[in-house]
Amino acid sequence: MANAFFNVPIPINEPVKGYAPGSKERLELQQQLKSLRNLELDIPMYIGGKEVRTGKLERISPPHDHQRTIGHFHAGDASHVTLAIEAALAARTAWAELPWEHRAAVFLKAADLLAGPYRARINAATMLGQSKNAFQAEIDAACELIDFFRFNVYYMQEIYKQQPESLPGMWNRVEHRALEGFVFALTPFNFTSIAGNLPSSAAMMGNVIVWKPANTQIYSAQVLMELFKEAGVPDGVINLVYVDGPTAGDVIFSHRDFAGIHFTGSTGVFQNIWKTIGQNIHLYKSYPRIVGETGGKDFILAHHSAHPKAVAVAMSRGAFEYQGQKCSAASRVYLPSNTAEEILGYVKEDLASFKMGDVEDFGNFINAVISEASFDKLAKYLDDAKADPNVEIIAGGGHDKSKGYFIEPTVIVAKDPKYVTMCEELFGPVLTVHVYDENEFEETLALVDTTSPYALTGAVFAQDRYAIDLASKRLMNAAGNFYINDKPTGAVVGQQPFGGARASGTNDKAGSQLNLIRWVSPRAIKETFVPVTDYRYPFLGSEPAEDLNRDKGL
Ligand SMILES: NC(=O)c1ccc[n+]([C@@H]2O[C@H](COP(=O)([O-])OP(=O)(O)OC[C@H]3O[C@@H](n4cnc5c(N)ncnc54)[C@H](O)[C@@H]3O)[C@@H](O)[C@H]2O)c1
Ligand SMILES: N[C@@H](CCC=O)C(=O)O
After folding, report:
1. Best probe residue, ligand 1, of 294, 369, 454, 515 (max atoms within 8 Å of C-beta)
2. Cα–Cα dist 85/25, whole Å
């Protein structure tokens, strides 16, 4: 066997393709969409490398065309969760003991496959299954996930490199063990990249995984699973099951080998999971790692010195891209009285130009919201707002689920800064605006800070540097991702590590060293070359002083 210290390639963010009319990437993507058009995929679970079909079929349809069937998945039950845990534990030793450069190579290969032969496929699946337009699919399912793979491999190497000091006569080392058990990856519908990153980041560090995606993301999850297999993730290392959340939770959170959860989703679900883990803490072999990124009520605050057009564009893109279904989406805005009318005028012009409809028409900026449940919830907020004399809907407000789950991009102006849609996460294309007295910037900072329990993303717009400084200080804890003169969405791996605090999560920053460090259990090793042979201190007369230096810490 030959030995060497390896350096992984320096990661560079994957360039975003433009999908302009006539471009190669657009033709490839259209081809994929066309070839999927007449298919009804039969989607199995993947346990221990085997495809598992239960015959209990659940229909998958595009949110923008709910009468059309694009596939069925085989639903599992508690027994499949147990099988997935067993398969993961059986794969654990070989995977954890594989030299790290092989794990790195597997995920670097996954990145290259995704950047090449899988790109059109994952984008098409994300467009159809989750109703994303081509550009939104590209930045998520292709580019962000490629970046997660490549940057995480680099961060893994950086973690392994960090070593302690050694005094003469000894060699101190730290090695990073995989967690002793299995990790549960519980993933949301809205980002294919997050669905791919939560199992793969923990797996990269040597862990074995039981992965349960949201039902509404299974169509693209299957493509990810095929990608993992082709990249060389061994059987049993990542196991994909389709069961309802509480059923999975019952089995997983009472298992002795449960070693950690990597979660992204809503705050309520995460808080219940944390409670259950707390109640069961005596059952586990080790204290489980709990990592969860959850909801947000993300803000834009404009100062009276802000550039009106820049604020307006941040609102139009930050609130409505992917129908406002980004955890980072702007959903409450505070505008100063001097420029509010001008800003809202630009926003109304933007919204009037948005086209809404099927993802296969590349002219549509807006598509459908994810499900009927989400549609019904959003429609109720809009109908309540229409009936409320204290608020005004200045754009949108309509909804129609006859063909797809379409909610018009909507702007509500609320006099009361604590109006319900200023406070609660709606997760849809609804933006609420409060106009404040331009002379009350400081008071408004306090309002922004205290209106919601979340602290995920937020943006401040100002030309006045003192205002920027004041906002940065007063909103220190109001956002884990804080933007100055930019929209609060669109964090890029390696550039703006992503995650929020307060009710928005544990802020372990996906796509960073901070996150990967949660998936290892370090072992410190001290090796003494010539052990001391007498217990006595020097003042007792026999041990030479230099021997004791080695054991300064006793
Ligand atoms: N902070 C972030 O980085 C981030 C990123 C993306 C999404 N989100 C948040 O995710 C939410 C939207 O995603 P979603 O609708 O898929 O979230 P969700 O909480 O409904 O679902 C997330 C996952 O949990 C499962 N689940 C649901 N109920 C469960 C239960 N009772 N027990 C166990 N598992 C259960 C789901 O099936 C899914 O796999 C929003 O709140 C959004 O803000 C946060
Ligand atoms: N990281 C994404 C949001 C992920 C949550 O849905 C952004 O920064 O817009």
Report:
1. 294
2. 39
Structure tokens at 22: 């006539």
Domain count for the chain, please give it.
Answer: 2
- pLDDT for residue 553: 47
* Residue 191 in domain: yes
CATH of the domain at 148: 3.40.605.10
- The pLDDT score that the predictor gives to residue 546 is 53
Task: Specify the 3-state DSSP secondary structure of 64.
Answer: coil
Residue bearing the CA closest to ligand 2, atom 1: 491
- Ligand in nearest proximity to the CA of 140: 2
Q: By alpha-carbon position, which residue is closest to atom 28 of ligand 1?
A: 245
First-to-last alpha carbon distance for the chain, in angstroms, is 39
ipTM over 0.95: yes
Q: How far apart are CA 253 and CA 278, in angstroms?
A: 10
d(C-alpha 289, C-alpha 189), whole Å: 23
Same domain, yes or no: 41 and 134: yes
Q: What share of the chain is helix, strand, coil (3-state, %, to 5)?
A: 40, 20, 40
Which residues contact residue 469 at a Cβ distance below 8 angstroms, ignoring those fewer than 6 apart?
A: none
Active site residue 293: yes
Is residue 423 flagged as an active site residue? no
| Residues with C-beta less than 6 Å from any ligand 1 atom | 186-191, 194, 212-214, 245-246, 249, 264-266, 269, 272, 293-296, 327, 425, 427, 456, 498-500, 504-505
Q: Is 531 within a domain?
A: no
Model confidence, pTM: 0.97
pLDDT at residue 554 above 50? no
What's the gap in Å between 326 CA and the centre of ligand 2?
Answer: 5
For residue 29, how far is its CA from the centre of ligand 2 (angstroms)?
A: 23
pLDDT in tens, 62-72: 999 999 999 99
How far, in Å, from the CA of 490 to the mean position of ligand 2?
6
Ligand 1 centre distance from Cα of residue 16 (Å) = 27
Residues with CB under 6 A from ligand 2: 190-191, 326-328, 489-491, 498
Beta partners for residue 392, in sequence order: 413
Beta strand 298-302 pairing with 330-336: parallel
How many alpha carbons lie under 13 Å from residue 119 in its C-beta half-sphere? 24
What pLDDT score was predicted for residue 551? 53
pLDDT in tens, 212-242: 999 999 999 999 999 999 999 999 999 999 9
Do both 204 and 328 map to the same domain? no
